[in-house]
Amino acid sequence: MQPGSASELSSTPYTILSEFTMREKLEYWLVVAVARCLGRLPRGAARRLAEALALLVYLCLGRLRRVGARNLELAFPEFSFKTRKEILRGVYRSLAWQLVEFCRMTRYTRANTRKWLRTEGLEQYQAAQAKGRGVLIVTGHLGAWELSSFYHSLMGHPMGMVIRRLDNRPLDAYVNGIRSLHGNFVLHKDDFGRGLLKAMHEGGTVGILMDTNMTPPQGAFVRFFGVEACAATGLAHVARKTGAAVLPGFMLWERAARRYVLHFGPEIEMPRTEDVAADILAGTQMCTSVIESWIRRYPDQWLWIHRRWKTRPAGETPIY
Is the full-model pTM beyond 0.90? Predict the structure, then answer.
């Protein structure tokens, strides 16, 4: 057992947690209590409870609601106010359902997820992996992103995840312990370069969330829903340096099938010319456009409450 794992933090709290602040301890136990409650309830009841909590957040945190409304106005100016509001409410429902799945993940096996989860386009992933130069999964805060890498590892395909550390240290260990139950590994954003390159050289797979606001020089401006957005260029740099295959992957709720489906799209052919800077920008635009295409198909499952367009080109007025 790794120090600070989810099971260790839960089983020996008074020795492990003694080094943390009172606030960290209280936040940790509150989250663990909610997680255990939602994880043990039947899925239907857990979803209803989580939806009630999400509705409370929707009503009480007006700032998030306003950010979501502004983003939807930018992305879908042709939609009516009513339609955009319905999409925004759907986002909270999607987050509530993902919370439920995360709280149940420690109990998941191949057998008990067979009727609830499946993969589509696995052959796309296998073809990319067979090239032997590593696979970079372009993904984002769409659908059940926490469940996607977990399910992929559960089905025998462990991978790395580039994530930001949680400010609460015991919670960070708890969450990462669950993420890594079936062989996944975590690469933290503040020091992921060497680990990412190593994984590619070993023919591994790493998923990168590419839909968050960035700032130069780590990011460059590309078009996202027709509006300039600063996007991370790290994936394009690594793909060019290592020759790794790049393809999209998203875990989405399919209403008709009433299940989550992990979709792998076709490989993204990253540009490779003598102009390195142009290739990086073009590759970043290609990945961003692919993410946009998936969001357009499932608009009520993307994290619209994130200030995606916060960073603006020099001289441009703030959006928020």
Answer: yes
